[in-house]
Write a structure and sequence with these properties.
With 239 residues, the protein is α+β, with helices and mostly antiparallel strands. The protein contains seven helices and 13 strands. The protein binds flavin-adenine dinucleotide (FAD). Flavin-adenine dinucleotide binds next to helix 1 and helix 2.
């Protein structure tokens, strides 16, 4: 059995960033990723160029049952911090519109940057490492029984992502684990998904497929202004 200070389940954007931050604070960190490589969703983000931040990000952009969470999170780590990191790694970027920053070249650079930061912070990453069991041991440590053996850690971070795009490694593992440890899980709802239309609605918009236009969307007293893209299946946002 190998022991770490922090065990991170999932090597996506959240898991890698958490791991490198813990590593920079001197923690011994292991990231356990069941897919054959980390950061797959980052690779497909922003149409392959990763819209890595938005300079205008503020708590007002978030809808949350706990509005204070994003206030404290953004106060401690702002878009400017991430831009500074990207610049330190020599990644060229541009603003597309409305403060959206994209890599000039490829999302691969963002994954490389996170891996380099993990490496510099001494983070160990185990890919292709399926998890068989998670336990709370008698000594208070968390135990991970995996395809690569047994690991123990004082802290366990569950960063296994949401359900979207299972072909990228997504699973409901995190929700099951939360329930296993007695956490209440709110009903799941899709977020950030295209709207698929059918029947007359789809027929009416068919000729506009491919057209993007600025719209204001309103729901339950909240309004957002941004680009909307008409697709052959319905409505989406341009990437
Ligand atoms: C098409 C598309 C485009 C997008 N574009 C952008 C963009 O431009 N900008 C932006 O900010 N966001 C974008 N997003 C959203 C963004 O990609 C996600 O919000 C982000 O990647 C989520 O990161 P995560 O670490 O929470 O989860 P994930 O990236 O899903 O990472 C979770 C990781 O956990 C692993 N895992 C799951 N179950 C287990 C298990 N049992 N054991 C071990 N490992 C496990 C998975 O394999 C995965 O590597 C886009 C999303 C999509 C689908």
């Amino acid at each position: 059995m190998e022991q770490f200070d922090v065990l991170v389940i999932g090597g996506g954007a959240a898991g890698l960033f958490c791991a490198l931050t813990a590593g920079q604070r001197g923690r011994r960190v292991l990231v356990v990723e069941h897919a054959n490589r980390v950061g797959k969703k980052i690779l497909m983000s922003g149409g392959g160029r990763c819209n890595f931040t938005n300079t205008g990000t503020s708590p007002a952009n978030y809808l949350s049952a706990n509005p204070h969470f994003c206030k404290s999170a953004l106060a401690r780590y702002s878009p400017a911090h991430f831009v500074e990191l990207v610049e330190r790694h020599g990644i060229a970027y541009h603003e597309k519109e409305l403060g959206q920053l994209f890599c000039d070249d490829s999302s691969k650079q963002i994954v490389r940057m996170l891996l380099d930061e993990c490496d510099a912070a001494g983070v160990r990453i185990a890919t292709g490492c399926g998890i068989e069991q998670v336990t709370r041991r008698e000594d208070g440590l968390f135990g991970l029984q995996t395809a690569h053996g047994l690991f123990a850690g004082a802290s366990l971070v569950v960063a296994s992502g949401g359900l979207s795009i299972p072909s990228m490694g997504a699973s409901g593992f995190g929700y099951d684990l939360a329930r296993q440890f007695g956490h209440r899980v709110l009903p799941l709802r899709a977020g950030l998904v295209p709207l698929t239309l059918s029947g007359t609605h789809q027929a009416r918009l068919a000729d506009l497929s491919g057209v993007a236009l600025p719209v204001e969307a309103r729901c339950n007293g909240v309004r957002f202004s941004n680009q909307m893209l008409v697709t052959h299946r319905g409505l989406s946002g341009p990437s």
